[in-house]
# Entry
Amino acid sequence: MKRREFLKHSSQLSLLLLANNYLPLHFSQSNHLSKSDFGDHFKWGVASAAYQIEGAWNIDGKSPSIWDTFTQKRKNIKDGSNGNVACDFYHKYESDIALVKSLNFDIFRFSFSWTRILPNGIGEVNQKGIDFYHRVIDRCLEVGLEPWPTIYHWDLPEILSQKGGWVNRDIIAWFEEFTDVLTKEYGDKVKNWMVLNEAASFCGAGYFAGAHAPGKISFKKYYDTVHHSNMVSGASGRIIRANVSDANIGTTISCSWVDPKNQKNKHVKAAKKWDAFLNRLYLDPIIGRGYPTDAGTFFKKIADRVPASDFDKLKFDWDFMGVQNYTRTVAKAAIFPPVLWSLFVPPNKRGVPQDQITDMNWEVSPDGFYKILKQFGTYPELNNIIVTENGAAFKDVLLDGQVNDQQRVQFFKDYLSSVLKAKKEGVPINGYFVWSFMDNFEWAEGYRPRFGLVYVDYNTQKRIVKNSGLWFKEFLKD
Ligand code: GCO
# Structure
């Protein structure tokens, strides 16, 4: 999980982040990259998510999701905005999908809005919602992009949230039903499926830090959401397998390399806990390794709540694992808060130069990305890794109809160099998705952070390809 999800967005908890003078390692690469270095079968894509781009929040039979209700309280979002219109992808999907293809990508990652398909969360299907995603999928196929949908990218039906949402164990059955509807409907055209987007983020920020929908702050609730999201991963995977015999099935996890503040034993121990929290809690159980109880009582508490009969069901035979990375974490021991007995050290308090800190206050760390990929390379269970998100928000300037986002171009060169290095050293990485295709609604941050390869003028909905988009276009051309 990126530091944002768990702490940074939470004004209460971020106050706890304390200063120190850690000096980071610097990373430099030659950047002589070419597409062919990654091999002929390497997949190149862009990623997006329904709530962040679609808009059309209340039309054609769609009911509210937790993000529709969460954003109604303006103070929940830094700029008081919401996703009611967002990038209006609901109406602009045809030209947007053509634009993705024009940048020479092969695949398009998007997510399904649960409440367009099942306005009551379960039960009656909304034909207009079903039709919309047929149009999106057909448009991808028509222009020559492989559709790679994510079943769940955080927009839980409000109606199910009122029944407890991810805290209620019934989420497993609700999610199975949703998966069943989607895979029976689209399975003949869609072969690549991802179950969840970063459970660490929607559980941590949604039920523990309260910074994301549905805005809960509770340890007990949090513990249950962790296990239920892990159970849902395998349960949904099994439905996809049953309904789409030739499916390529994955899910996505966030990750972050963790360094201790310094080599003192207490900080090294803190780093081990954060590593378990950020990189293992949602991965180890779903590949059959169980909960990371070796990392401390916090993890034992989660495991102790799990019925023994669940352990077998947690495991699924994934065809690929999606990993998403934005930054690295520096951990330090602390007496408070009591959960993990440790804290993050924010980049500006550990000597990271300002031009290496993104607009999300995340350190640019291609070296951290390389190291966490190598860590995953030690897992024999992970034999096919796809980077399902990587990217950066910088302060883009639109000048004379152009966005010269040189920092982002450099970011991609450096991060892709890390992917290539890890791949050459044997980590089985077979694809890379940019986050994001276009600027969009960045959750509790609103519209300020711009992550896109394409600039969106939210007043006119005009799209302007940034220099980073043009860089990819050139890089990916055959
Ligand atoms: C996430 C999401 C995206 C974010 C992106 C930038 O994991 O947080 O998949 O929705 O917009 O990561 O923060």
The chain has a mean pLDDT of 93. The longest helix spans residues 219-243. The first strand starts at residue 43 and ends at 47.
